[in-house]
Amino acid sequence: VKSDVVTGKTFLKKLGKSVVAKVKISKGTVLTLDMLGVKVAEPMGIPAGDIFQLVGKTVNKNVEEDDSVLPNMVDNYVQKAGF
């Protein structure tokens, strides 16, 4: 996103929403829906529309509370087509 006269609203719209950790998640933990949330986050992580696809998968890195959940943090995560 160029910084020339970009309003905060436009910037947030371009970022989109990502899956984030509601709590600290330790390496080796199997994800449940109550551990995950959705918000505008930087860096852009797993798209919000994929949140249900993460349930039952295992994280392979520690994820701090409020951090974006990135594709390389989740075993066997495959991003949906079209993103």
From TrEMBL:
- Supply the alphabetized keyword list: Antifreeze protein, Secreted
For this protein, the record's SMART domains field holds: SAF
As one GO molecular function, the record gives: N-acylneuraminate-9-phosphate synthase activity
Q: Which residues form a coiled coil?
A: none
Q: What subcellular locations does the record give? A: Secreted
Function of the molecule: Lowers the blood freezing point. Contributes to protect fish blood from freezing at subzero sea water temperatures. Binds to nascent ice crystals and prevents further growth. Contributes to protect fish blood from freezing at subzero sea water temperatures. Lowers the blood freezing point. Binds to nascent ice crystals and prevents further growth.
Q: What is this protein called?
A: Ice-structuring protein
Q: Which intervals hold domain AFP-like?
A: 18-77
The UniProt family comment states: Belongs to the type-III AFP family.
GO CC terms of this entry:
extracellular region
InterPro entries on file: AFP_Neu5c_C_sf, Antifreeze_III, PseI-like, SAF, SAF_AFP_Neu5Ac
